[in-house]
Specification:
This protein is mainly beta. The chain has two helices and 76 strands. It has a five-stranded mixed β-sheet with strand order 5-33-34-35-36, with no helix packed on it. It has a five-stranded antiparallel β-sheet with strand order 40-48-47-44-45. The longest helix has 6 residues, at 614-619. It is globular and about 100 Å long.
């Protein structure tokens, strides 16, 4: 166990929480202390910023300006998602978490995994689950990591990652801890926010031994408007007993501004009471937050200051005692992508050392790395080679390390800002580095919140040690566009609303145009077949867009190219076309036909035959436009005919697997459940519906309840049974009504215009009807945000269905079967867009519409009993099934009973044995008129309960001869829970 020197802190320990006579936990600071609270005896990196002063300065290093050229990468560990947290390195171990909520312990020297812990996922989280750094803590019972994930703070045992305790900071929706906790002895300080939503946010002190709340500071004073968010990290002046936090700005068009909005605030660390508030701006809603982490430093003349950068691109230094402004420096221009949304200025924390404040600014015009005199704020130097950054800067000896969104990791001189070393990382980075001795550890990952998890993010070790192992290769080059086969064409699946058919402008928000340019760019996409046309005027000389002082500027540029890339965490891609002399080009190829693409960029190029790497490409960037969901491409033409291999394909969810059948007896399992395949498996169930010939929807509840169940969107590839593959590309996730069991997906349907309707069962057998009918509006394809459990925007059509079941579509109306309801209900007059739903358009809240409803089929008509499955018959009427009576009835187009298609033999009753003809649930009809049904094998158990028999289900088919049904054929038996079907169109 590492030794710690604890200076100046006395904490009143809480007793057992179960005793009402125990004193409440409290914080007691001894004002005589002045040093760092936690000082590692081997000068490791135990917390965000290395120490409680948050100066982001390594206290011991072998790295210098003379030997940094020998720094080299020796290992990389790929994580499950983005890593935006700076690593903690203590006692030869590295600790860090990722956006999926996985927290890792690695051997810092070799990168070998020691343990990992999956923390609870907060489905409302805006960005990643773990976005901030941990804090290392030593106790008499062992060392711990204090980690924030989503809306929860954890104490994890450093030996094995097991949970010691956890504390949810708020039960409100959208509560999240984005910053890094600060541990002082037995007290934890942290900030949290609600992402601009009207819920609880602010600063907390927790008992580090129990997680119990000691005090709470509410910047809004109990008025919930979204003005009190603290998404940065706190800093403490132990001698003065002051805790410093920065607060966010208010959302547009919402009141609530007060003296603590958009402010740098000093709190009494023992009570949470505010002592002063420094507020540089009058009331506004411009999104100019204080983020990062305040820096403690002392000027050359002995004045103790607290400094923090703002998204307005100013760094402010104020007196610690009074909050009076001592100096401020505007380091760059404000970076506003659009009104009320700033993506530039200071976001990541600055570092302080040797009388210099060094910090990076984010998206906006560069230079983006700034060295300021700590005493006066004078700009000592600025570096144009470092790209925009959202990460902390780290001072290591006479070097400052900075990562940036151009995928660069660079070291510059602390005193001059001169670039001394750079490395292109495989993907952009938004997390800072940790360093001591020979080593620097860096993290990578940068995607838009709501995007699919990153597959290329992780952790690197760079070292001077010649014996540390071989140097690894980093980075990826662009790829040549693959040629299509003769007769093939490329199209977009579920194209976006913008830029398709009608041209759309590309706004300039990343960098200021050069002085000789007056640029206007428009882009138009054709979906089927795919083509992209870009028209530009006033761009000026291509070389004028390249930042001065960069290696790219020495090479120059002569033409403009249009590039398409798959993901922000994979910025490499390929050219679609090159602008001609008139400023126009059209292209119809992509590097990887069939892939999805999230970004189209215009670059200033010198060689149109070579795709620039990430660093060079960023320097050549003119402007870029992103698409979320991404543009999903698909190859059509040759090879797409006869996909079924001679017969139609029926899809069946059973035992959490997805199995395909043909009437000729062919079978293929295309998706395996997560229990058998934990890494790649998906738990599938419910009705299967097709959005088009290659994309289908199926119930997907993998990982519940940690991950919210919903309806997965899958892409189907292949031509015939035995060759099909299914890849999840999205997920539709609603909110659910209270029920006596976990949410259970069932029905789905796709209206002619692409609107999707879905049911969830609600209470299955008893209790009030809480089943739902929900409506999702296009575009739905490619929405992958819910891989992290986020709620997808939707509209509720009904929330009181008693055991909701299958869906059928009749032109623009929806038919829904309900097992405990009136039978089959018809819903019409559905909203055509979100505008038809009452309330504000939102994610994670219930929006309601009031469709016209009427009873369409009464299950008493024809002796059906209850209604489970429904599908349209070849005659234009309807087949409806009942698991309770074992019947399938046919009804006409108006819902009137026609005949019985299936019923159990005379004398059979539902009991310890199921019906010999099965208990039909889900239904499907193929083009040849064959009626398929999923048999749940319902029976009555000895205790009187009714449910499926274990591994007794079947999939069966009823052929028709001269219009009359033949006895059902068993396609497969011995199945677990075959509940619903679908047919490949």
């Amino acid at each position: 166990m590492m030794r710690r020197i604890i200076v100046g802190l006395v904490v009143a320990l809480a007793g057992a929480a179960c005793s009402s006579d125990d004193p409440a936990p409290s914080v007691d600071l001894d004002a005589d202390g002045s040093d760092s609270v936690v000082v590692a005896d081997d000068c490791s990196w135990p917390m965000f910023g290395q120490n409680i002063s948050r100066d982001f300065r390594s206290c011991q290093t072998d790295l210098t300006a003379d030997n940094v050229a020998d720094l080299r990468p020796v290992w990389f560990v790929n994580t499950s998602d983005v890593v935006s947290a700076s690593p903690v390195v203590v006692d030869g171990h590295l600790y860090v978490g990722d956006w999926s909520g996985v927290f890792y312990a690695l051997d810092a020297e070799t990168g070998e995994e020691v343990w990992r812990s999956q923390l609870r996922v907060n489905p409302q989280q805006y960005g990643g689950q773990i976005s901030g750094s941990a804090a290392y803590r030593s106790t008499a019972d062992g060392d711990q990591l204090i980690v924030a994930s989503g809306d929860t703070v954890y104490a994890l045992d450093a030996a094995d990652g097991s949970e010691v305790w956890s504390h949810i900071v708020t039960s409100d929706a959208f509560g999240e801890v984005l910053g890094s906790p600060l541990v002082v002895g037995d007290t934890i300080f942290l900030g949290f926010d609600a992402h601009g939503s009207p819920f609880r946010s602010g600063a907390l002190a927790l008992d580090a031994n129990t997680g119990e709340e000691i005090w709470y500071f509410d910047p809004e004073g109990g008025v919930r408007t979204g003005c009190g968010g603290i998404w940065g990290s706190p800093t403490i002046d132990l001698e003065r007993g002051l805790l410093f936090v920065g607060t966010a700005n208010c959302p547009p068009s919402r009141g609530g501004w007060n003296e603590y909005s958009e402010a740098l605030i000093a709190l009494d660390a023992t009570t949470g009471e505010p002592q002063w508030s420094f507020q540089p701006h009058p009331e506004n809603d411009r999104d100019t937050d204080f983020a990062g982490a305040p820096n403690l430093f002392t000027t050359a003349d002995g004045r103790d200051l607290i400094g923090l950068g703002n998204k307005d691109a100013h760094y402010y230094a104020v007196d610690r005692e009074t909050g009076d402004l001592i100096w401020e420096t505007e380091a760059a221009e404000e970076g506003f992508i659009r009104p009320n949304f700033a993506s530039g200025g200071f976001v990541g924390p600055a570092a302080v050392g040797d009388g210099v404040v060094i910090g990076a600014t984010a998206v906006g015009d560069c230079p983006c790395l700034h060295g300021l005199d700590a005493s006066t704020g004078e700009i000592l130097w600025q570096n144009s080679q470092v790209g925009p950054s959202y990460a902390p800067t780290t001072i290591v000896g006479d070097l400052a390390f900075a990562v940036s969104v151009d995928s660069g990791l660079r070291a510059v001189s602390v005193t001059t800002g001169e670039l001394l070393w750079e490395q292109t990382l495989a993907v952009p980075s938004s997390g800072g580095v940790a360093s001591f001795g020979d080593d620097v550890w860096a993290v990578t990952g940068f995607v838009e919140p709501g995007s699919a998890p990153s597959t290329r993010s992780g952790i690197y070790r760079f070292t001077l040690d010649p014996d540390a192992g071989p140097t690894i290769e980093i980075g990826a080059d662009g790829t040549e566009n693959e040629e299509l086969e003769p007769g093939e064409a490329l199209r977009l699946v579920d194209p976006p609303d913008r830029c398709v058919v009608e041209s759309c402008p590309i706004a300039f928000g990343l960098k200021d145009p050069p002085p000789d340019a007056d640029p206007v760019i428009e882009m138009r996409i054709t979906a089927d077949p795919f083509s992209l046309t870009v028209t530009a005027t006033g761009l000026g000389d291509p070389a004028g867009w390249i930042p001065e002082g960069t290696a790219t500027a020495g090479v120059g540029a002569s033409v403009y190219g249009v590039m398409i890339s798959e993901r922000d965490d994979n910025p490499n891609g390929g050219f679609v076309c090159i602008l001609d002399e008139s400023g126009t080009c059209t292209g119809s190829t992509v590097p990887n036909p069939g892939a999805s693409y999230s970004r189209i960029s215009i670059l200033a190029l010198v060689n149109v035959d070579v795709v620039p790497d990430a660093l060079d490409g960023f320097n050549r960037l003119v402007e870029t436009i992103s698409f979320n969901p991404p543009l999903q491409t698909e190859v059509v033409g040759a090879g797409t005919a006869d996909r079924a291999g001679g017969g139609e394909v029926v899809f069946s969810g059973q035992g959490n697997d997805l199995v395909l059948y043909t009437l000729d007896g062919e079978r293929q399992q295309v998706i395996t459940n997560a229990g058998e395949d934990p890494e790649n498996g998906r738990d599938i169930n419910a009705q299967i519906c097709f959005l088009d010939e290659t994309h289908f929807i199926a119930g997907e509840d993998t990982g519940q309840p940690v991950k919210i169940p919903g309806w997965g969107i899958f892409r189907l590839d292949g031509d015939r049974i035995g060759e099909f593959t299914a890849t999840q590309v999205g997920k539709l996730v609603p909110t659910y009504q209270p029920a006596d069991s976990q949410p259970e997906m069932f029905g789905c349907g796709v209206l002619p215009d692409g609107r999707v309707v879905l049911t969830d069962v609600g209470n299955q057998a008893t209790g009030p009807g809480t089943g739902q009918l929900m409506l999702f509006f296009p575009p739905t394809l490619g929405d992958v945000s819910s891989y992290r459990g986020e709620i997808t925007a939707h509209c509720k059509l009904d929330i009181e269905i008693a055991t909701a079941q299958s869906i059928a579509i009749d032109s623009d109306t929806v038919l829904v079967a309900a097992a405990r309801g009136p039978g089959v209900t018809r819903y019409s007059d559905l909203p055509l867009s979100h505008d038809g739903c009452s309330g504000d358009l939102c994610v994670g809240c219930d929006q309601f519409a009031t469709p016209t409803t009427e009873l369409f089929i009464d299950p008493a008509d024809g002796g059906l009993g209850i209604a489970n499955g429904i599908v349209q018959s070849p005659a234009g009427g309807w087949y409806v099934s009942s698991v309770l009576t074992g019947r399938i009835n046919e009804y006409d187009a108006d819902g009137a009973f026609v005949r019985v298609i299936l019923e159990p033999p005379d004398g059979e009753t539902l009991g310890p044995e199921t019906f010999s003809t099965g208990t039909p649930n889900g239904l499907a009809v193929t083009d040849d008129g064959t009626l398929w049904y999923a048999d749940l094998a319902i029976l009555v158990r000895e205790n009187g309960s009714i449910g499926p028999g274990n591994a007794m289900g079947t999939v069966r088919a009823i052929r028709f001869v001269d219009g009359e049904p033949r006895p059902p054929e068993i396609i497969e038996d011995g199945l677990r829970f075959p509940d619903a079907l679908g047919v490949l169109p």
